[in-house]
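thought: fold this chain, then report.
action: predict
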Amino acid sequence: MTLYLIGIGLANEKDITVRGLEIVKKCDIVYLEYYTSLLQCSFHDLAKFYDKEIILADRKTTEQGDEKIIAEAQNKDVAFLVIGDPFSATTHVQLLKLAKEKNVKVEIIHNASVLTAIGETGLELYKFGKTTSVPFLEDHPTLETPYNVIKENGDLHTLCLLDLKPRQDKFMTVKEALEILENIEERKKENVIHDKLLVIGCARLGSADSMIKVGTIKEIKQVDFGSAPHCLIIPGKLHFVEEEMLDLLKNS
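observation:
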């Protein structure tokens, strides 16, 4: 019996790999992790395409119910589906660790994630520094972490992943993230975030209607990026090829 950690991609029910789909169809229990990202299709689309009953796993189910999931995998084939790649969110390492501690067989099926899809911006992936998250201010009123990461990354690019609460149908926009960073700047006054700073706003990367816009903070705050998920990139020092690509995106 086996625990399968399966990435299902970024766009819709058809982004799963052929191998991943074959495994899902043979599993006894199928979970869908539903709190670190958002697909461009419904839960019902997935269930219909996979022809399986799917159990939605929120953060509590995954992080507090991981013992139950591992116990099931001792006697049954269990699929744990993750939007993007299984390890693009660090929370799933705990599930892998527990399975190994309990001597449960684990197979991992990788897929595309936002961490690779950002290459579509033309920025070189190996020039990205530490990735950070921008949470909603009501949960973290004294937030400084994303600001500090941008500052510490210096000449390296910074990917900012924006908060989401799927069960509340609440998803942070690029504009909201920029306003949070500006709010931190007002307190710290270190000139890390300013109106003329070049930023890249992205929406629905990996899908057919993905959107990438390049401009100053002032310009990007005026853009309607449409439906979630959104992410934000603060470029560091640019290679001339990166500059040329961003110029093309500005004019597209």
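thought: worth noting. The domain at 2-112 is CATH 3.40.1010.10 (Cobalt-precorrin-4 Transmethylase; domain 1).
final: tokens above.
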